[in-house]
Amino acid sequence: MSNDIIKDDPTSIDNFAGWTDEVEGYDQPQNAGIIQGNLIKFTNEATWVLRDGTELSANLELIAVDVARIVQKWWDQQPVETIILEPHQKFPDIEEMNAKVPRKEWIEGPDGKPRGPYQAQHVVYLLDPNPMDKYTFPTGTTGGRIAVSELRDKIVWRRRLQGPNVYPVITLSDTFFPTRFGGRQRPHFVIKRFVRLGGEGGEVQALAPPAQAPVNQPAQQVAAQAELPLQEVKEPSLKEEMGDEVPFNDPVPDLGKAESPKASARPLPNPRRNLKKPARDSARKAKRRPANVLDAG
Fold first, then answer.
1. Which domain holds residue 187?
2. What's the total number of domains in the chain?
């Protein structure tokens, strides 16, 4: 491909964007790209660990950059078939799929009982922005599904308020999950803040050149100052959340300037007294009227 063609293509930035090491005619397994970077697990002891058992810090801040939904068939603790669901595509009937599999192909579940080899999986992709390390958290448990669903809902609602390209910075935590066996801890993502990756149109923002360390300043301190600049998203105002002006904004009256009760207006006459007065006046006029005079009309 010539350089002229590359220049004419507006979507081509450089060779980093078009990099691939795939070989033509060679189909990789469908599940080859599911796990990206470091695999994260949530243990029965409510700890977050890597594949080798290294425990992750509770203060580690990661950006949740994507989620995925898949169906996998397991055999000998390895996925032998992977179905990646498209956006808005519903999960297939897992029970029906397992019912068609011979019992000899069923696997042992966490409770020690046999279960079907097909399992629904929810996957969260995380990024540590400073060293650019990638992490993947796959889960097939009910507690894990709830954690992923809650995170997804909060992202969707925040984007409705503040537009696309908004992503949460989270820490890995746990919360109580009631079950029929008395309850246990389940995974939980704590959102610390939201950041915007790229501009409004998704373009890549240019980064500042690396800072040069002064002679009397340690290089470690300069490296800490030259972290990846992320645009932090401000919290939406009450007007943005409600979609309207805030009611009840009438000025508060100054009670110090209110009139004194002594200077108030004279009370109105008694209504009952006013009703009787016209009747008495009519009676007095009737006595003064001559008897032989008829009313006109």
1. 38-87+118-198
2. 1
C-alpha to C-alpha distance for 297 and 241, rounded to whole angstroms: 73
The tens digit of pLDDT for each residue in 3-59 reads: 443 344 444 457 777 776 777 766 555 555 799 999 999 999 999 999 999 999 999
Does residue 188 lie within any of the structural domains? yes
Q: What is the pLDDT of residues 204-219, one digit of tens each?
A: 333 333 444 444 544 4
Residue 292 included in any domain: no
SS (H, E, C) 120-189: EEEEEEEEECCCCEEEEEEECCHHHHHHHHHHHHHHHHHHHHHCCCEEEEEEEEEEEECCCCCCEEEEEE
Characterize 207-238 residue by residue with b for buried, 16 or more Cβ atoms within 10 angstroms of its Cβ, and e for exposed.
eeeeeeeeeeeeeeeeeeebeeebeebeeeee
Q: How many CB atoms lie within 10 A of CB 128?
A: 16
**Residue 43 identity (one-letter amino acid):** T
Phi, psi of 291 (to 5 degrees): -70, -30
For residue range 264-281, list pLDDT tens digits in order. 555 555 555 454 455 555
The single-letter DSSP state of residue 55 is B
Q: What letters, b where the CB count within 10 A reaches 16 and e where it falls short, cover 76-97?
A: eeebeebbbeeeeeeeeeeeeb
